[in-house]
């Protein structure tokens, strides 16, 4: 089964534009999402394979509209709800 993240060989996608001297994070929130993901993996809430799978299961429109770390954050929220760590309502309303 092909998922949206598996676009190798597909046409219709714009080329990837590389930023010279691109910073690791474009905003503070991205660094926070990176750190949160690492902490949750180290605590055993989920593992890296589950995290990758959660990103790949995002709805196609959401996946394509999201930035790199927006996909990370969406996957984290999905996994926290699936694992019973937080409810979808708690995650939606902070």
UniProtKB/TrEMBL annotation:
Pfam families xrefs: NHase_beta_N
Record InterPro entries: CN_hydtase_beta-like_N, CN_hydtase_beta_C, Elect_transpt_acc-like_dom_sf
Highest taxon of source: Bacteria
Chain ranges of the Nitrile hydratase beta subunit-like N-terminal domain: 1-93
Protein name per Swiss-Prot or TrEMBL: Nitrile hydratase beta subunit-like N-terminal domain-containing protein
Gene source species: Pseudonocardia lutea
């Amino acid at each position: 089964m092909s998922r949206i993240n598996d676009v190798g060989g597909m046409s219709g996608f714009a080329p990837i534009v590389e930023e010279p001297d691109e910073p690791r994070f474009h905003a503070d929130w991205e660094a926070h999402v990176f750190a949160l993901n690492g902490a949750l993996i180290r605590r055993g809430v989920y593992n890296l394979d589950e995290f990758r799978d959660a990103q790949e299961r995002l709805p196609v429109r959401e996946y394509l509209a999201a930035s790199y770390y927006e996909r990370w954050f969406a996957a984290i929220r999905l996994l926290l709800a699936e694992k019973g760590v937080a409810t979808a309502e708690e995650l939606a309303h902070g």
